[in-house]
């Protein structure tokens, strides 16, 4: 039966297709107002009006409340993240609210002083657009170390500027440039909002919040087009309000999400980003754990190794001996134990110095290791005393092997720094299960026999009590 299966190529193709479709959806969404504007422009009678002062005042009142609330929330985001972008966004909302308020206040003057009523609309959107643009230019570029909260005086100065702007707008409304300034401000607001969208696209800022932000500014830009095509109270004019309101609410939603998560616009994570961070964190933790384990193992090795000769130290040797004795117990294979002590080593130290003595110990260990089987374990018990575990070796095997070793050492000439040193060693041998059932017993017997070898004149192997 034929089955569909995933292949890297098909996966890549679907991924590219999905990405392209996501871009198309965003573009289509951003362009929705344009369709509505075109529809109203071409199919509605532009003289149709809905002049209702009370409704307008309520609508403006609601948007002012939203503006004030969102300015306050943005301000709190700013207090948390100190991002330059966020104080400009706060200023944008604040400026919009303060200037736009007059548009509502002068609703009932619209019949007699149309320009006084109208001009505050584009003025407020232009103020917001400029703040958004300046903020956007600093988006993600803050030098973390230099982030400092603005003093209170800064905010009072900003409020004063917005009040001054409102006064200027009022004055312009009564001037001969009123109509021209309306067009100029509307075009400027549109241009600045579009510039914001272009910057976001050019800088490839595609975090979820900034995507909503981009759509909002495109909505704002289109609301300016609708305002320019409409006249006060007609449907295009109301539609312009609606488009602006949708953009404003979408932007407010972003701010709320920013506030409820990281308090920052640039540091709000999508689910995908969170998973990516989680994966990276886990990788880091696994890596650290592995390093820790390796370090631990290295430490274990160091703790079980003699630093001078690099063979097992007393602790390491005893551990290995325990393991081998357990193995021998389980398998029933013989196991022998040898202790060895260098003869008259003090004389070597006295004659050649301690450093040469060290070199002799190192060379001695090298020689012994060479003659042992890989399964045999050599350990330095202390000073010039060593021990060997011989797995799978009966007492006879151990004696044969030890005798061979004894002779080899006896005839070896250790050459260290132009000095030739001769060495002999005394050995004591014991067998596991015969001379003792645990490490201490086995060691004690072998050590006793080794001292016996010393007594017998050194350079000997002793493996029983009769010697
Ligand atoms: N160079 C060097 N000497 C060591 C080390 N550990 C112990 N020794 C020396 O080994 C010598 C042991 O001396 P003794 O216990 O009298 O034994 P010995 O001279 O070997 O004589 P016998 O064991 O009776 O044959 C001492 O001089 C210690 O200083 C070491 O790490 N390096």
UniProtKB/TrEMBL annotation:
Q: Does the keyword Transmembrane apply?
A: yes
CC cofactor: Mg(2+)
Coiled coil: which residue ranges? 275-302
Q: Which InterPro entries does the record associate with it?
A: Diguanylate_Cyclase (IPR050469), GGDEF_dom (IPR000160), Nucleotide_cyclase (IPR029787), Rev_trsase/Diguanyl_cyclase (IPR043128)
Q: Which reaction does it catalyse?
A: 2 GTP = 3',3'-c-di-GMP + 2 diphosphate
Q: Which SMART domains match?
A: GGDEF (SM00267)
Which residues are listed as membrane-spanning?
Answer: 21-42, 54-73, 85-102, 114-134, 154-177, 183-202, 209-232, 238-260
Which E.C. number(s) belong to this protein? 2.7.7.65
* GO MF terms, alphabetically ordered: diguanylate cyclase activity
The GGDEF domain, residue ranges: 333-466
What Pfam family is a match, any one? GGDEF
Q: Which UniProt keywords apply?
A: Coiled coil, Membrane, Transmembrane, Transmembrane helix
What PANTHER family does this protein's entry cite?
DIGUANYLATE CYCLASE DGCM-RELATED, REGULATORY COMPONENTS OF SENSORY TRANSDUCTION SYSTEM
Return the protein name. Answer: diguanylate cyclase
Annotated organism of origin: Aliidiomarina halalkaliphila
């Amino acid at each position: 039966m034929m089955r569909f299966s995933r292949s890297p190529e098909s996966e890549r193709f679907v991924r590219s297709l999905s990405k392209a479709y996501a871009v198309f959806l965003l573009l289509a969404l951003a362009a929705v107002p344009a369709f509505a504007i075109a529809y109203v422009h071409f199919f509605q009678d532009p003289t149709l009006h809905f002049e209702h002062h009370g409704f307008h005042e309520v609508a403006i009142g609601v948007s002012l409340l939203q503006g004030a609330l969102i300015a306050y929330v943005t301000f709190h985001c700013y207090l948390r993240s100190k991002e330059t972008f966020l104080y400009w966004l706060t200023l944008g909302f604040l400026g919009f609210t303060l200037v736009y308020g007059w548009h509502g206040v002068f609703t009932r003057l619209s019949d007699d002083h149309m320009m006084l009523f109208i001009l505050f609309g584009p003025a407020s959107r232009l103020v917001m657009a400029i703040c958004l643009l300046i903020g956007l230019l600093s988006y993600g570029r803050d030098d973390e170390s230099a982030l400092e909260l603005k003093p209170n005086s800064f905010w009072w100065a900003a409020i004063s500027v917005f009040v001054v702007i409102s006064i200027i707008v009022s004055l312009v409304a009564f001037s001969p440039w009123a109509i021209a300034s309306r067009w100029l401000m509307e075009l400027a607001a549109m241009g600045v909002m579009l510039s914001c969208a272009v910057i976001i696209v050019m800088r490839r800022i595609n975090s979820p919040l900034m995507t909503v932000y981009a759509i909002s500014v495109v909505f704002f830009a289109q609301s300016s087009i609708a305002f320019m095509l409409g006249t006060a109270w007609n449907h295009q004019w109301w539609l312009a309000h609606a488009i602006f309101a949708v953009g404003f609410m979408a932007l407010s939603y972003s701010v709320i999400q920013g506030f409820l998560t990281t308090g920052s616009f640039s540091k709000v994570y999508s689910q995908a980003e969170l998973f990516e961070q989680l994966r990276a964190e886990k990788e880091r933790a696994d890596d650290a754990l592995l390093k820790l384990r390796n370090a631990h193992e290295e430490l274990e090795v160091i703790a079980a190794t003699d630093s001078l000769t690099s063979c097992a130290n007393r602790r390491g040797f005893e551990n290995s001996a325990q393991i081998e004795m357990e193995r021998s117990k389980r398998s029933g294979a013989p196991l022998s134990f040898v202790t060895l002590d260098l003869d008259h080593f003090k004389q070597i130290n006295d004659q050649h110095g301690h450093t040469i003595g060290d070199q002799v110990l190192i060379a001695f260990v090298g020689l012994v290791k060479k003659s042992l089987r890989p399964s045999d374990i050599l350990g330095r018990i202390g000073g010039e005393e060593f021990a060997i575990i011989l797995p799978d070796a009966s007492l006879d095997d151990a004696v044969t092997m030890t005798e061979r070793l004894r002779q080899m050492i006896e005839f070896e000439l250790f050459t260290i720094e132009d000095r030739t040193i001769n060495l002999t060693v005394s050995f004591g041998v014991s067998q596991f299960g015969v001379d003792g059932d645990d490490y201490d017993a086995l060691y004690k017997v072998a050590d006793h026999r080794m001292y016996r070898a010393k007594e017998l004149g050194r350079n000997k192997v002793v493996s029983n009590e009769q010697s």
